[in-house]
Amino acid sequence: MTQRRFHLVLNVNSGTVQALGVTSDTLRAMFAAHGLEVTIDADPQTELSDRIRNAIESDADTIIAAGGDGTVTALATAIIHSDKNLAILPLGTANLLARDLGMPLDLDEAIEALRDVEPLAIDVSEVNGTIFLHKAVIGVIPELAAGREYIRGQGMGAKIGFMRYFYRRISRARRLALEIATGDGQSRIERVQAIAVATNAYDEGLGRFFHRDKLDTGLLTIYVLRHLRIGDVFRLATGMLAGHWRDYEALDISTARSVTIRTKKPRLQLMIDGEVQSMEAPLEFKIYPRALSVLAPLRAIKEEMADEQAEAVAQPGATGQPA
């Protein structure tokens, strides 16, 4: 098998990168220890857009995102328009896609895993022209996320202040009136505390916090949270950790191939794959089936193939025998 050519983009500003003391030299040594060659871009003085363009124009067949989910999404946005593969070194806080793909979360193990990975085509989504891989969230959640980012790296006093802000914001949050229209012509008005539009669906299961088994269903999943009081926060969080949250009474779940969200407000604040930004309304959501080629461990790909075969057998009239 031809050895892959890796071009790694390191986000040196990632909190995890700084906490672990990861540098281009340490990464190069770790790749070499596993018999892998890599070109590393760790230049914080160059704009990320320029670094991504350099990666796409390189002769590498695989671009590695070494950072958090925001870094992964930024690289994926460019890669879907190229013939490159995306690979991930989990150096963020959540590492959502890396977890979904079954990548080891230990850095050395993740590098070793790059010796035995294969391309997997997964879905990507878009809202008003902005690509996302996981979810876009509207409502009170983005405001809380913005507050969290503000105190990152500060002392205990700031963290205590954030907890007070969190309590006040949840206690006083007003519901947002929205029209939710799906591509099949269905439309409804909802008053919500938060709404999330996710690429595919999050699964239940013990400890499976925001985990997706399926990354290529071609469907958006819409999570409407009608109220979010302090008690709801703890019940939802506990339910997610325990693996039974879908039947929560304040939560409505539906699927669609496209979604339009309208409101009387001219702009809405969103949290897109962990990054908070403001967008003009209405919000137009689309999904692009199997548009991104990402490297995953062979074990995860075999499990995906086994699931697809099991679903085929379960279809009415299926015999389970090869044609």
UniProtKB/TrEMBL annotation:
This is Diacylglycerol kinase family protein. The lineage of its organism: Bacteria, Pseudomonadati, Pseudomonadota, Alphaproteobacteria, Hyphomicrobiales. Pfam families: DAGK_cat, YegS_C. It comes from the Bacteria. SMART domains: DAGKc (SM00046). Coiled coil: none annotated. The keyword Transferase applies. Keywords: Kinase, Transferase. Residues 1-131 form the DAGKc domain. GO terms for molecular function: kinase activity. It comes from Pelagibacterium nitratireducens. InterPro entries: ATP-NAD_kinase_N, Diacylglycerol_kinase_cat_dom, Methylgl_synth, NAD/diacylglycerol_kinase_sf, YegS/DAGK_C.
